Amino acid sequence: MASIGVRLVATTAATGFALLRENSGITAVSSAQRSAINAGYTKAIADLAADLAGHNANEALDDPIAIAAAQQSATAGVRDAWQNISNLQGRAAETFAGTGPGGFGMTITGFTGWVGDQFDMAWAGGGGLVDGAGNILYGGYMLIHDLVTMPIDLVMTTYGCFDTTSRWEQLSYFGSDSLAALQGGTPLWQIQAQTAAGVVTLGMYGFVTTGYEWYVTGDPRSFQQYTGMFATGTFLFGYASGVEIAIGRNFRVAPFGNRTGHPTGRYPHYHRRGPHNPLTNETAAGQGIGRHRPWDIKSIDTTFGDRF
Amino acid sequence: MPSQICFPVVRIDSGDIELFGSIDDLVANTEAIDVRHGVYEVFDAAGRRCRLIAPDVGFFDLKAPGPVQLEPDVMGVPEEESLRNRLLSFLMQLNISTADLTAKATNELVTLAWHLTHKANDE
Q1: Which of A107, A196, B104, B113 is most buried (most C-beta within 10 Å)?
Q2: pLDDT tens per residue across span B14-59
Q3: How many whole angstroms separate alpha carbon B108 and alpha carbon B80?
Q4: Which is nearest to A165 in space by CA: A222, A234, A232, A230?
């Protein structure tokens, strides 16, 4: 037989449980009702918004203010288009004037503008020429400086004078020192041939690389400087060697003169076999191939043209 | 040997003739490429044929042409008549009468050609 205390505890527990269950039920019902109410209101608001959007759209179609605004906008667009056409027509004279003075429809203002444009272009071109000449001279100076300070055996690999990758490489004989190759038994002509081929290759390589750099970056300085180096090197080589360019056996040109000790041969000159004497079918007197034209003067010349 | 050469030396290029009073003068006025091309015939004043020798050059023929050398053709016989004919042909181009020329000896023709080609304005 359970004691009063035990029963009281059991009753209290049962009561508490019942209350808890009742409370949970009430809470669930309340939540469900709140959700249902909220859903209803949400739908109502959405419907109202949709109705309002539709209503506003219908209203806009009939709204005279909106219609007027739209028409004004269209008119302004047309007016702007015509203004653009007018502007193009107004600029037509100058546009045609770009090909020269007196173009179709050119006005005085257009002509003065054209003159100003030409002056600007000439000024800019002159500045570019001065800059280019400066760069060419600088390239020549660099080559001379390097030739003086570096062994003549070495040839510069040029990636542009401003490029830190510029360096010297031995091109004398397959990357070796030509003196060592000579001492090793390589024939001199073979070393010379390889050196010449290397220099020619380097020359083409330099023009291609610096020209490409100009094309990519728009900066012509490296190309100009390389041109200066190439031209200076060509001149130095030509002057020192006294090279002559022969075209057949009866004509050749010495663009840098010779270093043979001849008084007029030191200057740029050319050689040409003169006309034949029709009586003997031999070269006329004083017109041999050895003459340094146009400098040499011979006592047997009969006309000024004999020296040419 | 140069000492065997009798100056002036006569250098013949087809119908054109030049005379040189010394080796240095000849060397300064003669380019190696012409020698290599076999352009010139050379005689000394005694009618002996001489040889011009050009130095060898590099593979691309771009070296400075070194001085040519002159040596007598010691194996050859004197060719005075050949030299005389060449001088006559040259001098007749200069409007000198044939009768005057044919009367002269070879050494006189050499002297005449020397004076005609070495006036004051000649290089």
Answers
A1: B113
A2: 889 999 999 888 888 888 888 888 899 999 888 888 989 887 665 4
A3: 12
A4: A222
Higher pLDDT, A292 or B67: A292
Which residues of chain A fall short of a pLDDT of 50?
A: 1-2, 94, 96-98, 151-173
Chain B interface with A: residues with Cβ < 8 Å: 13-18, 27-31, 33-34, 37, 39, 58-60, 62-65, 67, 89-90, 93-94, 116-123
Distance CA B7, CA B78 (A): 15
B30 CB neighbours in chain A (<8 A) are 290
Three-state DSSP at A223 gives helix
| Helix, strand, coil shares, percent, chain A, to 5 | 65, 10, 30
The one-letter code for the residue type at B67 is: P
Q: Is this complex scored with an ipTM above 0.95?
A: no
A18, A26 Cβ separation under 8 angstroms? no
- Confidence (pTM): 0.56
Q: Between the CA of residue A34 and those of A28, A38, A39, A43, A47, what are the distances in Å?
A: 10, 6, 8, 14, 20
Pairwise CA distance, residues A285 & A301, whole Å: 8
Taking only the tens place, the pLDDT of each residue in B71-121 is: 887 766 778 889 999 999 898 888 888 888 888 889 899 999 998 888 654
Which are the contacts of B89, defined by CB distance < 8 A and separation ≥ 6?
Answer: A280, A282, B15
Angle made by CA atoms A209, A213, A215, in degrees to the nearest 5: 115
Cα atoms in the Cβ-side hemisphere of radius 13 Å centred on A64 = 0
Half-sphere exposure of A112 (CA within 13 A, CB side): 2
Shortest CB distance from B16 goes to which of A241, A271, A287?
A: A287
**Considering only CB atoms, which chain B residues are within 8 Å of A261?**
27-28
Any idea which residue has 């000579």 for tokens? A182
Chain A nearest CA to B113, separation (Å): 10
**Rounded-to-integer distance, Cα B50 and Cα B11, Å:** 10
Q: How many CB atoms lie within 10 A of CB A273?
A: 20
- Token match 């249902």: residue? A36
